[in-house]
From TrEMBL:
The chain crosses the membrane at residues 6-32, 44-65, 101-118. The keyword Amino-acid biosynthesis does not apply. Pfam families: DUF3169. It comes from Staphylococcus chromogenes. Keywords: Membrane, Transmembrane, Transmembrane helix. This is DUF3169 family protein. It comes from the Bacteria.
Length: 119
């Protein structure tokens, strides 16, 4: 079952990567970003870097609290009763998945910023 899931994830990544690569090679996206002249101004570079840094720091702090809550629920489920055990485990897994999404959103924010600066 896991092999099929990983194979499906690889196929989706290839498809998304191909679409993004095609957009960059088409000249549409390159022409759009070159007309904006993002990297021309020193003040823009500083302000945008500070904004992206603040976004990443806020996401990191929020991720810390989400992970702390997930660990609390996990510990509580280990010492809990059978009645609430499934519910606590489901909540802990949900918090862990939320933390995972926050991690990948941090990476996405930084990658989009790098693409905007480099194109």
């Amino acid at each position: 079952m896991k092999i099929g899931r990983y194979f499906f994830q690889i196929l989706i990544a290839i498809l998304v990567g191909g679409i993004i690569g095609g957009l960059f090679n088409s000249g549409f996206l390159h022409g759009f970003f070159s007309k904006l002249n993002f990297a021309q101004s020193q003040s823009f570079l500083m302000i945008s870097c500070i904004c992206v840094s603040i976004i990443v720091i806020v996401l990191t702090i929020y991720q810390y609290f989400v992970q702390k809550d997930a660990l609390f629920l996990k510990r509580k489920s280990e010492s809990g009763h059978d009645d609430t055990l499934d519910e606590l485990l489901a909540k802990a897994d949900l918090q862990y998945n939320k933390s995972d999404i926050l991690f990948y959103s941090q990476i996405t924010v930084v990658m989009v910023y790098m693409i905007i600066l480099l194109v």
